[in-house]
Structures are given as C-alpha cells and as structure tokens.
Amino acid sequence: MNRAALFEQIKKKNSYLCVGLDTDLDKIPRHLLSSSDPIFEFNKQIIDATHQYCVAYKPNIAFYEALGPKGWESLEKTMNYIPEDIFTIADAKRGDIGNTSALYAKTFFDYFHFDSVTVAPYMGEDSVKPFLYPDKWVILLAHTSNPGSSDFQLIESVVTGRKLYEEVLIKSQQWATPDQLMFVVGATQAEKMESIRAQAPEHFFLVPGVGAQGGDLKMVSKYGMNKQCGLLVNSARAIIYAGNGQDFAQRATAEAVKVQEEMSNYLHKYAN
Amino acid sequence: MNRAALFEQIKKKNSYLCVGLDTDLDKIPRHLLSSSDPIFEFNKQIIDATHQYCVAYKPNIAFYEALGPKGWESLEKTMNYIPEDIFTIADAKRGDIGNTSALYAKTFFDYFHFDSVTVAPYMGEDSVKPFLYPDKWVILLAHTSNPGSSDFQLIESVVTGRKLYEEVLIKSQQWATPDQLMFVVGATQAEKMESIRAQAPEHFFLVPGVGAQGGDLKMVSKYGMNKQCGLLVNSARAIIYAGNGQDFAQRATAEAVKVQEEMSNYLHKYAN
Q1: Interchain contact A257–B (C-beta under 8 A)
Q2: Domains in chain A, ordered, with CATH?
Q3: What is the pLDDT of residue A116?
Q4: What is the mean pLDDT of residues A217-228?
Q5: Is the ipTM of this complex over 0.90?
Q6: Given Cys at both, which of A187, A233, B28, B120 links B42, Cβ 3.0 to 4.6 Å?
C-alpha cells in the first residue's frame, strides 16, 4: 500500500489507529482454547470487531514465533484474513548483513505479504536497504518507548551534536524516500515529538506506547501530525484484551471506537 | 553449556570453529532436492562431516524463516540432530521491549533449545536482559563486519569519548557476567581487535566474517584470544558450500579440517 492509499484510508475512517495483534495463549478468553487454532480464532474475531475503526494491524512476530511452526500457521491465516484495504505491519525488529536482511524481507513481504516491517538500525545501510521493495515499507526504529531507550539512543555525537536516534532519522533519509520509510517513535517521547517531526517532516511515524505503556494520544497528535496525518498510533493490550469473557470482541469494539473518536477530533484539529 | 564446558570442548578439539548453517535451497547440491526435507538433509550431512572439527553450529534464522512453517520444522530437526556437546547459536539478531524479548528468548531457548542467541543492542537494557537464562548466553552485537557497521557503530559520544560499539561493550557488562554474555565482533575489524579485547578481557567474541567476508584468522586470533580462548570464529559459505556435487560433504570436511588445523596452531601460540 502506498502513501496516498494509506492517507485515503485514514481520511475515510477518520482514524490512524493501528491495532497490535500481540496474541498470547495465556491472555485470550478461555472459551477459545477449545478451538483448533485459538490464536487465529482470537485474531479473526478481533479483526471482525475492529477493522472499521483502524487503518492498520501489527502482529508482534515474537508472539507467533514462540509457538513454533504452528504459530507461523496462525500468522499466515491471520494475514489472509485481514481485509485488503488495511495496512499490515510485521513488528519483527529485524536487521542483519545484506544477504540475510534480504531473506527477512522475503519472509515478510513475499511469503506473508505484509506491507511493512520494523527494522533495527544498528548495522546500518546495507542491513536496511534490502527491505526497500516497491510499495512496501521499512519502519526503522528511531526513538523507542521502553526504559532502555536511553541507554544508547541518547548518545550525542561529538561530530554532529546529534543524538543517536537523530543520526538514524537524518542518515536513513538518504536511503529511502518518505514513500518507503517510516520511523518508530515511542509515545512516551511525546515531549520530543515536535523536534522529531521537524527532523522528518514528511515521514509517517509508527507510535507504540499509547495505553499500556503510558503515552499520551493528544500530545502525540498535536506535535507529531503532519498534513498527511503522518501517524499510525498503535494500541494492543488496551483493545484486544479489553474483555476476557464471551463478550471480548464487543469490548474490543468499544475500546477501538473510543480511540477512533478521539483520533477523529485530532485529525480535524491538527492535520491541516 | 557454561563457559568451562565450552572451553573444555575447545581444548579437546583444538578448535574454536563455528560452522554457520546458512542453508539455502538455491545453493545446496541439486541431488538433495528430491529429499522430503532438503534443508535438513543438507544440514545432517554437513553436521556429520564437520562435527569433529568445530565446537559450535550457528543456524542463520533468516534462512529458515524465509521458508515459512516448513523452514521452522527443518530447523527443529537440525537442532535435534546436533550432538549435545556442541554449542548452538541462534543467529537471529532479535531485541524488543521486555515482554517481547522474553518471548523471543522462549522461542530460541525453550522451544528450540539453543545455547545462545544473537541480540541487537539498540533498545537497551530491558531488551537484552530477558535473554539472560541460566546456562544460556546473549551474544550482543558490538562491532559488526558489514559495510554499514560504520554508519552508527562508530559515532563517538560527546560525554565519554567512546564510540557507540564501545558504549555497548562497556554498558552491557553491567547487565551480565562473562558467563552469560558474548559479543559479536566482525573479523573485518581485526585491526581493532586488540583494543576491543582490552575493553572486554574475559568475554567470548563471536567473530563472523572470516572467509567470504574477507577477515583474517591469524590477526583475529593473535589480537582477540584470551586465556580461555575467548573466540568462536564463524565460517559458513566457505565450508558448507565448498562443494556442490555428490562429494559436497567430503569437501566440507576438508575445509573444516584446514581451518581447525590453523586454529590448533593459534591456540598453542596465543591462548596462554
């Protein structure tokens, strides 16, 4: 899905919500465990319950990998079930030498048909470029939302005066246009959102951390939005585990609607 | 496998060779393609041909992932086939927020029973620590051997004067002892090996890049070895694709023997 099509979906749904499919056998409703594939059954019902209110789904690949080959089958079925007009993100944090990154790209783009994959920048240009496919996206880690993000991402360069995450933002823009490259910017970095947006004015940001990780949707939207929205804000646990009984899907709908309505306001207020 | 046991294996075999199982359907001998699982059949014959001369096997996870669920099955069979006394490395370059890293650890340690996994440091402490299991190892990327390694790894901190890869070396030593933590140091960084060894005197280094990537085994050994050897040097393509016909396994043996004999010399010369 290209940038224009993504923005069309955002306008159509008045939403920039990404639903994180962090599907965990220990957390899904008990009554699903008798199904032949509880992970897929849960995802299917969550997708049915939320697809009108979100523009993207983001399976967290670790949750599927941890189940071995069966997990990959659940992921494959999930990908086949997600409607065509919804953007898909493989949250995989991959990145390796060129020939290896090319294989990871093959996995997520050719095998599973994701629109995008999250990539860790530590190994530099030749670890990132193999993910540049036509009409597919690299979502590069810039400033993440976890406690350890300050360990290395804030190291300031003696040469440029820029922090590591800023070096990633600036340097990677030489590798790909805003039509193929997004950045991960944690919602817990809301106070930095304005300066990060100034360094990458046109790019989409994938913003995890609203909800369970404690980010602030209003601040993120106010300081992070650009004219084409430029934001995909992820919420996983707060939506998919809103309920834990027979009504879990309705509860997920209610949470998704709540976020979507808030987003609708911000879109009219800030995306101009 | 703990550090003492690993060093025992190194002394017993006079080798610190790690064989990289970068097994690729496009590169394995044609006559294996009629097998029900050509990837496993190739690995099995390579393991039979090389296990006396190496102390570790390193499946590059991308090669298995790219084949979907079937690839994971080939990996599982390969892991079951590797002899117990050989150290195993999941070359996966993972790393994510705590609960997600914990699931990646579960995948490679609990499901596949690897001894170690390679981890990318960009997200910091809480992305690394979930991989600290008893008698298991984190192999953290420090200075890699690919061209893009200079993009971010050489950024020098205005505060400490250390480069990013040195910050990784120093800071991560607060998170784990040399009994649970190794570093990836590319063989193409041979000229820096001495200073890197000074910053992490006791740790094992996993050194990729000897062979196809152009590293120099002698220089790596001379400047990188410590009293307990402290090196695992990986060779993949040069060994596993030494031949491409019916005799590919014998050709792999010949290459492995050649490297092992060279290593035997260096062990006696430098590991004192």
Answers
A1: no
A2: 3-270 (3.20.20.70)
A3: 98
A4: 94
A5: yes
A6: B28
> What tokens were used for A166?
């800023």
Q: Which amino acid is at B106?
A: K
Q: Is B188 a residue whose pLDDT tops 90?
A: no
The answer to whether residues B252 and B50 touch, using CB atoms and an 8 Å cutoff, is yes
**B204-231 core/surface letters (b: 16 or more CB in 10 A; e: else):** bbbbbbbbebebebebbbebbbbebbbb
For residue range A112-129, list pLDDT tens digits in order.
999 999 999 999 999 999
Say how many residues make up chain B: 272
Write a three-state SS string for B4-52.
HHHHHHHHHHCCCEEEEECCCCCCCCHHHCCCCCHHHHHHHHHHHHHCC
- What's the whole-number mean pLDDT along residues B103-122? 97
Type of residue found at A172: S
Backbone angles phi, psi at B224, to 5 degrees: -100, -20
Determine the residue of chain A that is closest to B145 in CA distance. Answer: A97
Number of A–B residue contacts, CB under 8 Å:
180
Tokens of B95: 């790393």
- Picking from B167, B101, B93, the residue whose alpha carbon sits closest to that of residue B128 is B101
